[in-house]
Amino acid sequence: MIEPQSIARTTIFEPLRFLIVAGSMICLSGCATMTTQSLNAEGVRLYQQARYQEALQRFGQALIYDPNDPSAYYNIAAVYHRLGELYHQPEDQSRAETYYQLALAKDPNHLAARRGLAVLLTSRGRSQEAIAMLQNWAAFWPQSAEPRVELARLYEELGDRAAAQKTLLDALAVDPRNIRALNALGHLREVTGEKELALAHYEQSLQLNQRQPELALRVSSLRNELQLAQTTSPSRLSSNAWTPNASRVR
């Protein structure tokens, strides 16, 4: 689910799909003042209680204290995005798009706003605009892998796994130690049946950051699965099969 920002964090394992999943986008904005920070935090709490109009009021108050805070604009966009999902009102979706754009005007590299806008455009049948927006972001920020990771997420959601894989490889060419890109490429390899390569990407990610418990569990499970496949493979069974004793053959 596209949700307001509360506490900034990197998700442990991110599948490429642009699905709206509760809790996946909760992070906290870096705010100019404690007042702005507390208002954003209060707005997130109200949002999580489905008190959307009250949440909008808090985020609006946060903008009064700091009109340059991109995350306050993003938070408002996220609320309107949610209202548009719930009630299918074009006005709410249009407001969400406007506030996503305002967030990006303040911070062109605001990842949550880029992701939210891509989700919104795709849901409105404007996937080519979403692709172009993320491609332009990658061109604007060529030294970062993040735009390419987001673009790969969108390609995979649209069913173009080849483009998603190429984009993730491009991301790793920019930043070979990017954990999100490694995890995403591992996921893509796994769903396409390349489990040995998936395991290699996951293991590299864990070497860079061992504090990924969900990924560690997946690595353990995948190792066991591959070991079991090796022990039950036809070639292994054939090599262990009973053969006649040559001395008994007449």
Question: Could you explain the architecture of this structure?
Answer:
This protein has helices at residues 34-48, 52-65, 70-87, 90-106, 111-123, 127-140, 146-157, 161-174, 179-191, 195-208, 213-231, 234-239. The model is unreliable at 7-32 and 246-250 (pLDDT under 50). The chain is elongated, with a radius of gyration of 23 Å. Helix 1 (34-48) runs antiparallel to helix 2 (52-65), helix 6 (127-140) runs antiparallel to helix 7 and helix 7 packs antiparallel against helix 8 (161-174). It is 68% helix and 0% strand. The longest helix is centred in the C-terminal third of the chain and has 19 residues, at 213-231. It is an all-alpha fold. It folds into 2 domains: 1-125, Serine Threonine Protein Phosphatase 5, Tetratricopeptide repeat, CATH 1.25.40; 133-235, Serine Threonine Protein Phosphatase 5, Tetratricopeptide repeat, CATH 1.25.40.
Overview in brief:
The chain is mainly alpha-helical.
Lay out the secondary structure:
Elements (H helix, E strand, L loop, with lengths): L33 H15 L3 H14 L4 H18 L2 H17 L4 H13 L3 H14 L5 H12 L3 H14 L4 H13 L3 H14 L4 H19 L2 H6 L11
Helix pairs in contact: 1-2, 1-3, 2-3, 3-4, 3-5, 4-5, 5-6, 5-7, 6-7, 7-8, 7-9, 8-9, 9-10, 10-11
Main attributes of the structure:
250 residues, mainly alpha, Serine Threonine Protein Phosphatase 5, Tetratricopeptide repeat, 2 domains, 12 helices, 0% strand
Q: State the end-to-end CA separation.
A: 74 Å
CATH topology of the largest domain: Serine Threonine Protein Phosphatase 5, Tetratricopeptide repeat
Sheet of most strands: none
Give Rg in angstroms: 23 Å
